[in-house]
Write a structure and sequence with these properties.
heterodimer, A: 321 residues, mainly alpha, MetI-like fold, 2 domains, 0% strand, B: 342 residues, alpha/beta, Rossmann fold, eight-stranded mixed sheet, four-stranded antiparallel sheet, 12 strands, transmembrane helix (chain A), cell membrane (chain A)
């Protein structure tokens, strides 16, 4: 198994190189460069040309690419033109915020979706099932920004139960319990919004898997052994029904690490999604390329995690032997 | 054989399934007994109700949309009246099940050993250690080499024949008095089929269990059965000891079935077929001889209006009276019919 994982990780290298070339090429295709915004009627064209020369923008593309990629491998993505800070420290701060939000959302999502999906499938056709299906369709149909704004308006503004932006209040000192709880407090509203809207897939998958599993022959075998229905659900059906969830858990997690543009923007939560949309608006190319490269890496990592989880849960797809 | 102890008595069994808001009987008017140390074969083509009969015995149907009426007497209890938890004490303990497709019948995510031990867990007081020991004994008993290894494996790692042996090990774990085998050899190679049938016979010798063998393979029937019930469209249409059934079949359906077995020494290149199809559950004629539409050259007056089983010989029952006037199409009477039709 470890061998296979190592092989998969090594395989990611050529994939990442191709991705980085693509990103670099796209960035080069975009009109203008970092100095375009500085040009005013009074600017001396020679001065701009000097700056370009100094920044290496007149070098052939492969030299520029080499500069960029060798830096990137060492974690140096250059400086952000808009934030006047190094890209890596900029991403580092945001990534941590997004990590907390993702973790909180994902736990909440599965806490809500797994019981609902399992019970809806088990008691198919009952009012509980119909209610769950209705809920999942509604949550699928509501756009993120609508529910986000509604929550923000009612729970944040009208009722004033939760903060409306930020990750933590400034008065708390890092490392204390108060600081931690205040962080969680800031996570609740965006986290719930995210979890409620993300449950649909998990509920629907689980429900249909449970309904499908009920008619499988191995369930009939278990019944013929005299195993009570309750035990059949917990011992046989539950685990088999989780397979599709396991199949995309890696993508779910790494997808979340990319941050949610809508949620982070609405709740003023400084994470990766918000950073991405800001950099796009400000044409902060060094940040954009770094983020896209990172998202690509996360997607590759996601599929690796999914494969590993699958092989743990389902013996039929053990990677080795 | 018939003098031995009666294990199971099925009386007037009707099983109906709900389709939309109506119940349709999948099997009707089933009367059967199963004796100790006996193999009772139930044969018929797909959709005739064989499997429904098997699962009706211990109520294995999906809950909610099935109605099982009649009496199934096991010991002093009527199984159709028992509650789920009472049935659970009988399932696997007194009555073991062997299913058709051994890959589908095993949980893909559970180790072989655990799947066998599960039966023991609910029916015996054995400790976990003793259960493990018994699992290895059982695997050995069903002819699996290296039981320790196989117990730790998953179903997909075994061959079809081994999987069926595992399914049998599950069925016999608690030494049941009755074994119900629903097409146990259908999904297997011919060579493996013979091994599995031998295994079942060996196990029966040890435990004196009564076996209900459901199959559509008349070869299997000839090999292992003591008595045969032929089912058509949800009813038993002929019931006889095996030699009698093969030597002196009466009902048109039984005769057609036997006639459709390809003979290696026959000069006829064409396979004999039975015309028409088994009516579906919702389109089943509820009166008259159900086989009538498939032998149109028999005059309607020759069928009973409400066909019953009649004794025509020692332990030999046949439904309807049409058998007296039955002949194959290519025989004399049939030829006339064909001429008329043309």
């Amino acid at each position: 198994m470890w061998k296979t994982i190592l092989r998969r990780v090594l395989l990611m290298i050529p994939q990442l190189i191709v991705l980085s070339l693509l990103i670099f090429w796209l960035a080069k295709l975009m009109p203008g460069d970092p100095f375009t915004g500085l040009i005013t009627p009074e600017t001396d064209p020679h001065r701009i040309e000097e700056l370009r020369e100094m920044a290496g923008l007149n070098d052939p593309w492969y030299v520029q690419y080499w500069h960029w990629i060798t830096g990137a491998v060492q974690g140096d993505f250059g400086d952000s033109y808009a934030f006047k800070d190094s890209v890596s420290s900029l991403i580092g701060d945001r990534a941590l915020n997004t990590l907390w939000l993702s973790l909180f959302s994902v736990i909440l999502l599965y806490l809500i979706a797994i019981p609902l999906g399992i019970y809806a499938g088990r008691y198919q056709g009952t009012w509980f099932d119909k209610g769950t299906v209705l809920y999942s369709f509604i949550s699928y149909a509501i756009p993120t920004f609508v529910l986000g704004l509604l929550f923000l308006f009612f729970f944040g503004y009208k009722l004033d139960w939760f903060p409306t932006s930020g990750t933590v209040d400034v008065k708390y000192e890092a490392g204390t319990w108060d600081y931690f709880w205040n962080k969680v407090y800031h996570l609740i509203l965006p986290g719930i919004t995210f979890a409620l809207l993300g449950t649909t897939t998990v509920i629907q998958y689980l429900r249909s898997e449970v309904i499908d599993s009920k008619t499988q022959d191995y369930v009939k075998t278990a019944r013929s052994k005299g195993v009570p229905m309750k035990k059949i659900y917990s011992k046989h059906i539950f685990r088999n029904s989780l397979l599709p969830i396991a199949a995309f858990i890696g993508f779910t997690i790494t997808g979340l690490l990319g941050g949610s543009i809508f949620i982070e923007t609405i709740f003023g939560y400084p994470g990766m999604g918000q950073l991405f949309i800001q950099s796009l608006g400000q044409r902060d190319y060094s940040v954009i390329t770094a983020l896209v490269l990172l998202f690509g890496f996360l997607a590759l990592l996601g599929s690796l995690i999914s494969d590993i989880v699958m092989s743990i849960v389902d013996p039929r797809i053990r990677i080795d032997n | 054989m018939n003098t031995s102890k009666e294990l199971l008595k099925i009386k007037n069994l009707h099983t109906s399934f709900r389709i939309k808001d109506e119940y349709f009987a999948a099997i009707e008017d089933i009367n059967l007994t199963l004796n100790e140390n006996e193999v009772l074969a139930i044969v018929g083509e797909s959709g005739c109700g064989k499997s429904t009969l098997a699962t009706s015995i211990v109520g294995l149907h999906p809950e909610g949309n099935t109605k099982v009426e009649g009496e199934i007497t096991y010991g002093d209890r009527n199984l159709t009246k028992l509650k789920e938890d009472q049935l659970n004490k009988i399932r696997g303990n007194d009555i073991g099940f062997i299913f058709q497709d051994p890959l589908a019948a095993l949980n893909p995510l559970m180790r072989i050993g655990d799947q066998i031990a599960e039966t023991l867990k609910y029916h015996t007081k054995l400790s976990e250690k003793e259960r493990t020991k018994r699992v290895l004994e059982l695997l050995d008993q069903v002819g699996i080499n290296m039981p320790e290894r196989v117990a730790r494996q998953y179903p997909h790692q075994l061959s079809g024949g081994m999987r069926q042996r595992v399914v049998i090990a599950i069925a016999i774990a608690c030494k049941p008095k009755i074994m119900i085998a629903d097409e146990p050899t259908t999904a297997l190679d011919v060579t493996i089929q013979a091994q599995i049938l031998d295994l079942l016979s060996d196990l029966q010798e040890e435990t004196n269990a009564g076996i209900i063998l459901i199959t559509h393979d008349l070869g299997v029937v000839a090999e292992v059965a003591d008595r045969v019930a032929v089912m058509y469209a949800g009813q038993i249409i002929e019931l006889a000891p095996v030699e009698e059934l093969f030597g002196n079949p009466k009902h048109p359906y039984t005769r057609s079935l036997l006639n459709s077995i390809p003979q290696i020494d026959s000069e006829n290149d064409r396979l004999e077929v039975i015309h028409g199809m088994v009516p579906t559950l919702t389109k089943m004629p509820r009166t008259g001889c159900r086989f009538g539409p498939r032998v149109p050259w028999i005059d309607e007056s020759k069928h009973e209006t409400n066909p019953q089983l009649h004794e025509v010989g020692q332990d030999h029952l046949v439904r309807c009276t049409c058998w007296k006037d039955f002949h194959f199409e290519h025989e004399e009477g049939g030829l006339n019919h064909e001429l008329h039709a043309n």
